[in-house]
Amino acid sequence: MTERALLTVRGLSKRYGDRVGCLDVGFNLWPGEVLGVVGESGSGKTTVLHCLSGRLEPTSGSTEFLQRDGSVVDILRLPEVARRRLARTDWALVQQNPRDGLRMGVSAGANVGERIMAVGARHYGQIRGQALDWLSQVEIPRERIDDLPGTFSGGMQQRLQIARCLVTRPRLVFMDEPTGGLDVSVQARLLDLLRSLVADLGLSAIVVTHDLAVTRLLAHRLLVMRGGEVVESGLTDQVLDDPQHPYTQLLVSSVLQP
Amino acid sequence: MTSRDPAAIEVRDLAKSFTLHSQGGVTLPVLRRLRLSVSAGECVVLSDPSGAGKSTLLRAIYGNYKPQAGEILVRHGDRMVDVALAEPRQILDVRRRTMGYVSQFLRVIPRVPALLVVAEPLRALGVGKADAIERARAILARLRIPERLWGLSPVTFSGGEQQRVNVARGFIAGHPILLLDEPTASLDAASRALVVQLVHEARQRGTALLGTFHETDVRERVATRVVSLSEAEAA
Predict the structure, then answer these.
(1) Which residue intervals of B98-188 are DSSP H helices?
(2) pLDDT > 50? residue A52
(3) What HEC string does chain A produce?
């Protein structure tokens, strides 16, 4: 396999004074691969996600990103303007609380449409057509296109956020506890939707979650974090079924079986 | 080795133990210096009693368990891949194109209908949706799953129905290597006979099969060779 990694992270650390957010995290993400990052609260998994998605400045490390034209840039050292352009065209962030990822003051259609406009679309009919298409892909009835997200249920809001994120065909999607605040039945529907979208679009994604069942369904590979460090990594089913590190064994054995 | 065909699976000096850190770090050795090879067209049956490590071996070959030592070479296209050392994405590629696995239990995904569960290995190989679904219908019909169930998630199916969905999913893609962990465990005699037939057809296509079968009658009908783990382990 001579394929090149989409993202190469090396020595990523974030310190808050004496406290460690994450320490010396490194991995490759390959095109079409979904990487799950698991650990309990305080393990550093969200810090890693924030450092990669540009919401937090890491203390040290490098993050090389393979651009569409085949060139590689260190996104941590990229000028702000260039980084914002990449964030608009190549990356997307699905947040745990859809209210953080949506604009609550504009309609569902506008939430999806304005992302396409931000990358250059101008034709109103086409924008609305694409928005409608995406609403149906995430199983939101077409007649809700002009409604405000505030009138949607939590599950619908989360699906709308996913449509808003994916409409620009990003090459890398960050997901922060995407099924976090949802009821179990709503979670199952969302997971199934994410699973098929990821497979159909060949998305590369980094999914941070404390829910091991979510990673089994979504992630090809896992990083297990504790105290800011990666303690174990590997194929998802291998890490979950034959965990090697004491902490991973504890995590896996602590899951309640319904 | 008396076999003239090149091996599809070649296990060399495999060692696998489990260390239980939550229980004082006690280590349970399961496999020690195990050697085994399976050629195309063979169906090798592991004969040991339960608890001997048969499932552990199958899972290690599938990349699901991580061995401490040894090599697990599988023929993947025109080269041998060592599953014990391979990167996750290589193992996923081996599973997609080369190696299928039928376990005793179906891992059910909520909301996904049986038809798509069965068609999925074909879709992963790049087979078009309509074609994949047509072949899934054919094999589900053959395994006598009532058509009214095809559009439903197997969550509510009986144990035997789930097991047949599992068998259908395992055999549909015609992988060159198939690992079978008690695929007939909860099946009635008629369904067991269907699985025996599927094994025969797979062998004729040149598939290398390695498995465990609880029932003596099934074992006798599918095995081209019977191996016990204790014999396969070097002294």
Answers:
(1) 114-124, 129-142, 159-171
(2) yes
(3) CCCCCCEEEEEEEEEECCEEEEEEEEEEECCCCEEEEECCCCCCHHHHHHHHCCCCCCCEEEEEEECCCCCEEEHHHCCHHHHHHHHHHCEEEECCCHHHHCCCCCCHHHHHHHHHHHCCCCCHHHHHHHHHHHHHHCCCCHHHCCCCHHHCCHHHHHHHHHHHHHCCCCCEEEEECCCCCCCHHHHHHHHHHHHHHHHHHCCEEEEEECCHHHHHHHCCEEEEEECCEEEEEEEHHHHHHCCCCHHHHHHHHCCCCC
Nearest to A241 among B20, B65, B93 (CB): B65
B63 within 8 A of B95, measured Cβ to Cβ: yes
Nearest to B110 among A33, A192, A220 (CB): A192
ipTM of the complex: 0.93
Q: Note the pLDDT tens digit of each residue in B202-212.
A: 999 999 999 99
Interface of B with A in 8-27 (CB under 8 A): 18-22
Q: Is B186 strand, coil or helix?
A: coil
pLDDT given for residue A200 in this prediction: 84
Nearest CB to A235: which of B19, B63, B112? B63
CA distance A90 to A67: 8
Q: Which residue of A has its CA nearest to B19?
A: A244
Chain B, nearest residue to A3 by Cα: B89
B20–A249 C-beta distance less than 8 A:
yes
Binary contact (B64, A249; C-beta < 8 A): no
Q: How confident is the model over A218-233, as a mean pLDDT?
A: 96
% of chain A residues with pLDDT over 90: 72
Q: Among A181-195, A221-235, B82-96, which stretch is predicted with the lowest mean pLDDT?
A: A181-195
Nearest to B109 among A217, A238, A246 (CB): A217
| B89/A192 CB distance under 8 A | no
The ranges of chain B with pLDDT < 50 are 1-4
pTM: 0.93
